[in-house]
Amino acid sequence: MELMVKYAGWAAVMAWATLVFTGFVCCADRQSVDAKTASDVSGTETPEAEILPVTDMVLIYGGGKHRTATWNREHFAPYVSYTDRAQKEQWLFDGFLFLEITNGVSGKQRIFATGYYGQPAGKTEWERQADYYFTENNGVYALDDCIAAVTERLGAPAEKRKVVIGLPEPIVAGPGSHYAELPADYWGSVDGKQLDFTGNDDRITACKWFIDYVEARFNEGNFKHVELAGFYWIAEESLHTKTILAEVAACLNGKKYSFNWIPYWKTDPDYYDWQALKFNYAYLQPNYFFNDNTPYSRLTEACNVAKLYRLDMELEFDLSVFVGDRNRGSRLYDYMKAFRENGILTSKRIAYYQDCDALYQLYHAAAEQDKNLFHDFCAFVVEHQTKYQNE
Question: Are the C-beta atoms of residues 310 and 34 closer than 8 Å to each other?
Answer without folding.
Answer: yes
